[in-house]
Write a structure and sequence with these properties.
By secondary structure, this protein is α+β, with helices and mostly antiparallel strands. Helices cover 49% and strands 20% of the residues. It has a six-stranded antiparallel β-sheet with strand order 4-5-1-2-3-6, covered by helices on one side. A four-stranded antiparallel β-sheet has the order 7-8-10-9. The protein starts with a strand and ends in a 5-residue tail after the last helix.
């Protein structure tokens, strides 16, 4: 029995970051997208450790002498298509690790999930606790979220990724029907944006505080469900398109207003 995994991770970290692994069982290889089966081996000592290259990828290899029967229904056969899924899962896991170890003070964080091939982008609690004044300002937080909503929606759309936004500052990006190269580029582009906006937010907040009080913004905050408003903007992916449609709605409603005036 052999387990192949990315040298960027320790064996334990495969579980921590939902990293993928390859399993060689009686000479036949399988893919475990999130290494759920390695829990069976955490207490076992490998009889051999070495490195091996498969399909141009470099692996750590742990070899075990065991008759452990694994739940094969949780594994994928080793095919070119499934190895592409392995690479995507590995990219998400490595990005997850980097956001924990290197980019842990940025505004947003990227996490891998156990839900097939999906990443979650969400507010980083470290950044939140370091900038409590900023997030206590409802008006600025609302504007910041709208900016992030539009950026992530349009970035996902650029790569033809499905995405959803169900909670404040929490976005799910579906990556099951794409390729490793696209996912890699998406993660790189998002990280560049994240690093840039993380440095700009304090300056933007100071500029916002210097602006005259906006009665229009206050009315939106007072008369709207902020969560619903943000989700609507996310669905549109464009504030301009949303405003155009509201103008058209007002135009259409004028027909009723003109014919329903009280004598």
């Amino acid at each position: 029995m052999k387990i192949y995994y990315d040298p960027n991770f320790t064996f334990q970290e495969l579980l921590d970051y939902y990293s993928p692994s390859l399993l060689d069982i009686d000479g036949e290889k399988f893919i475990d997208l999130h290494s759920l089966n390695i829990v069976n081996f955490l207490g076992l000592q490998p009889i051999n450790r070495y490195h091996e290259e498969i399909n141009g990828w470099f692996f750590n290899v742990n070899e075990y002498e065991t008759n452990e029967i694994l739940p094969l229904e949780n594994l994928l056969p080793f095919t070119n298509e499934n190895f592409e899924k392995f690479k995507i899962s590995n990219a998400l896991s490595f990005e997850y690790l980097k956001y924990n170890e290197v980019y842990n003070n940025l505004f947003l964080k990227v996490e891998n999930t156990l839900n097939n091939l999906e990443c979650v982008i969400s507010l980083n609690n470290n950044f939140l606790t370091q900038h409590l004044e900023i997030f206590a300002d409802v008006g600025f937080e609302f504007l910041l979220e709208i900016n992030i909503v539009l950026t992530i929606k349009n970035l996902a759309r650029k790569y033809s990724f499905s995405s959803c936004f169900n909670h404040p500052f929490v976005f799910r990006i579906e990556l099951s029907n794409t390729f490793y190269d696209q996912v890699y580029e998406f993660l790189e582009e998002f990280r560049d944006f994240n690093m840039k906006i993380s440095g700009q937010i304090p300056t933007l907040y100071n500029q916002f505080k210097m602006l005259p009080k906006s009665d229009e913004l206050a009315r939106i905050l007072q008369n709207s469900s902020i969560d619903s408003f943000s989700k609507t903007i996310y669905s549109y992916g464009s504030i301009e398109l949303f405003i155009d449609d509201l103008r058209k709605l007002a135009e259409l409603l004028s027909l009723f207003f003109e014919n329903s005036k009280l004598d």
